[in-house]
Amino acid sequence: MRDVYSEQLDSIFGDLAAICRRVQTAVAQATLALMTGDASVAEQVISQDVEIDRAREQVEDTAFSLLSLQQPVAGDLRTIVAALRMVGELERMGDLSVHVAKVARLRVPDVAVPEEVRPTMSRMAAVAEDMVSRVCDVISGRDVEAAIALGRADEEMDQLRRTSFAELLSDDWQHGVEAAVDIALLGRYYERIADHAVSIANRVIFVVTGHNPAPAA
Amino acid sequence: MRDVYSEQLDSIFGDLAAICRRVQTAVAQATLALMTGDASVAEQVISQDVEIDRAREQVEDTAFSLLSLQQPVAGDLRTIVAALRMVGELERMGDLSVHVAKVARLRVPDVAVPEEVRPTMSRMAAVAEDMVSRVCDVISGRDVEAAIALGRADEEMDQLRRTSFAELLSDDWQHGVEAAVDIALLGRYYERIADHAVSIANRVIFVVTGHNPAPAA
């Protein structure tokens, strides 16, 4: 019985990593839809989100049955509770990708992001996607060093948000209110995806070490 | 031993309701700061958020020790796991109030919300605050009927968001990009506060009935 239990506990992290890869695809596709104005790619992100939701439910069911049938203590308990939270955050990252895809879809056949602010928005999307990719590795390898490094990647996202606001509030801005509002909200969505990646990385640190990481200065 | 356990389980819901009341105050004060441009009220919301964070940690510690020492099953287990999630959502609602307060502070001595869009923004803030107030009652009374009703209040928020976008994208908009971006982000913060209130109400339904409510049509 104990063997099956250990396997189930390990498999939860495998399931989380698999969901994380789906989220990574959703972020990448949402960005593609956004930058190209491709409605069918946007639709894919929106319609495939239900699969992330379903995978989350499975992890919750597994975690719940482990809690109730095995009555784990200490490290195992910490792992299962952390898994429940991580899967909630992954689902939320999927939702945020859907928000990005919906902005893209709303502007088809146009592209929501004007030419001259594309470098900043593309970089923001790339940083978010990279952070998701890295947190998938953190999950599957329970890699504390990589998790700590991820907290620092968040600084570039903060800087990009400031740059983005400066661009759309400059006197040279000629794309009106609608594009500015799109950019501000898109920036917010990518920033939240990055925040969740950092938060998940911190939960992995807690699972492995038993301690919460010190907050970044 | 069992008596202390039952008391602790009940006290978790009392703690959650108390945190919820703090969140309600934070939402109300953030709105006051926003509508009056009062920097000191904004500062209060920002500085007091740490108390919500601390109260969350206490609930987490209690929940964790109940899980590990009492090894609850079935309904009790469901309650504790739900409490862990609810407290995470309450903390997030506190963070969103801080975001509102920070927009207010950034525009002092001006007021971020132009005169003619105040009715919509005020109503959005009022709906959010009312939903928080109602979810506090749902938590303390474990009131399923009230929880179900809360899901429907969310519809007004969706409608208000649409009205708000129509206002700032209309040809009559004369307040420039900065105010429009503020309004769009503020709307998003209030909308998310409302979303979390509905989500917490749904968790209470799950705790009491053992079933997740059907999603709203």
From TrEMBL, chains A, B:
Cytoplasm listed as a keyword: yes
Compartment annotation: Cytoplasm
Sequence ranges assigned to domain PhoU in this UniProt record: 19-103, 122-204
Domain of life: Bacteria
InterPro entries: PhoU, PhoU-like_sf, PhoU_dom
Any Pfam family the entry gives: PhoU
Keywords: Cytoplasm, Phosphate transport, Transport
Main location: cytoplasm
Protein family per UniProt: Belongs to the PhoU family.
Record's function text: Plays a role in the regulation of phosphate uptake.
Subunit structure: Homodimer.
Protein name per its UniProtKB record: Phosphate-specific transport system accessory protein PhoU
Gene responsible for this protein: phoU
